[in-house]
Every structure is written in C-alpha cells, then in structure tokens.
Amino acid sequence: LDARRRMLGLPESKLRDQRAGSYIGYLNILGKSDGLSDDQYKAAQEYLALRNAYLRAIKAPGRLIDDEAMPSPEITKEYEEWVQATKEAYENCRRAIQEAQNEHRCENLWAALDLIIIRDERLPHMIGATRILCNALARFFRI
C-alpha cells in the first residue's frame, strides 16, 4: 500500500481498491473528468476478456488460463463453435477499433490499445486516445 500511495498519490480508502492495480483501473478511480468513466473501464475490461478468449481459441503461448470461460479443449462440435464465435467476435472488435481510428486520425488508438490496455503501461499523454478507444469499445460491446 505504501508503494501504491507513493506512485499513485491516492487516498488510503482508494488504495485498497483492486482497480488501483492497473493503469486503466487507476484512471477509473480518478473519474470521468481526469481519467476514465465506469463505462469506458468496463469496455476495456470486456476487451481484455475477449482478447484472452481469442488467445485461448488460437492456442497462443503465454495466454491466461481460465477453464470456466472455455469449453473442454477436446475437439467437439461445441468447442469448434466456441472457437469460431470467439474469432469472429475478436475480428469484429478489431474492425470497430479501426473504424474509430479512421474517424480520429490525429490519435493513435492502436498504440493506446497495446500500451495502456494490454501492456498496462502508465503513459499520461495517451489518456485522450485511450478515452476515444474505450468509447469505441463501449459502443461495440453495447455498454
């Protein structure tokens, strides 16, 4: 908690919040005016869950393991349908991000996605692009 207090400058009551463990969570704790709204935070979390499911579907190395979210890895019709649906949802999500990128050419939404949401790096100069990205994700996930 002392390290969080020094790094984040949050009051004691907010340091125990699990969201403070990630940069997007920290931005959500700051609130809509300085960081991310609750809907933007939820959209980023939904993207991370979809990305993790996609990585499991393509059997990528280094993926997070969550047995409850994925059917049995045995090749069954249900498993093949899950893999196909997950791949399709991920591609549709990437298409929605590209559409937002096309609308906001002055921002680099792909960098915000990679650096801030996926890699969890603290880059304050990219908060604007992250907000735009999370708005696009919120529209995609209908949050």
Global Rg = 17 Å
Distance between the termini: 32 Å
Describe the largest sheet. Answer: none
- Low-pLDDT segments: none
| Residue fraction in strands | under 5%
Mean pLDDT: 84
Helix/strand/pairing class, anyone? mainly alpha
SSE series = HHHHHHH
Helix proportion: 55-70%
Gross morphology is: globular
Care to describe what's here?
This protein has helices at residues 2-8, 12-15, 23-30, 38-57, 77-103, 109-118, 127-141. It is mainly α and 143 residues long. Helix 5 (77-103) crosses helix 7.
Task: Record keyword descriptors for this entry.
single chain; 143 residues; mainly alpha; 7 helices; 64% helix
Summarize the structure.
This protein is mostly helical. It has helices spanning 2-8, 12-15, 23-30, 38-57, 77-103, 109-118, 127-141.
Give the SSE layout.
Blueprint: H1 2-8, H2 12-15, H3 23-30, H4 38-57, H5 77-103, H6 109-118, H7 127-141
Helix pairs in contact: 3-4, 4-5, 4-7, 5-7, 6-7
